[in-house]
Amino acid sequence: MKRFCDNCNGTDNRHRRNLLDRISAISFAVGETTLYLDGHPNHRMALAYYTKMKNELDALTGEYEMKYGPLSGLGIGGSEQQGWQWVKQPWPWELNYPEGGDHPELNDPPVKLDTRGEEE
After folding, report:
1. CA–CA separation, 73 vs 50, rounded Å?
2. Which one is predicted more confidently, 27 or 67?
3. Interatomic CA distance for residues 80 and 78, integer angstroms
4. Is the pLDDT of residue 98 over 90?
5. How many separate domains does the chain show?
6. Residue 19 — left, alpha, or beta (φ > 0 → left; ψ -120 to 50 → alpha)?
7. Does residue 77 lie in a domain region?
8. Which domain holds residue 22?
9. What is the separation of C-alpha 67 from the centre of its chain, rounded to a whole number of angstroms?
10. How far is CA 113 from the centre of its chain?
């Protein structure tokens, strides 16, 4: 199920998707560097790289959340007056991007597989 971004135009959707792509890539780099540092805790280049990537991830996440809302439900909750805020917007992966946009594969119909798991 895809949700529509009611107040987003095509340019805004592209910017949103670009931010999500960058956040995903940098998040991967931070995670992998964390694993490396678990085994090499005093590696100065790795520590410098981790710091640089973590700062960039924090900045991109902050930009995304300021413009589009939270990326996860952790720490944002809500209140008795406002309700649970996390569910009041489209999930980042449920956005409807325009046909033929930057990521047309998001609009491709699912591939039908036969009982052996091969395409029909």
Report:
1. 24
2. 27
3. 7
4. no
5. 1
6. alpha
7. yes
8. 10-107
9. 14
10. 28
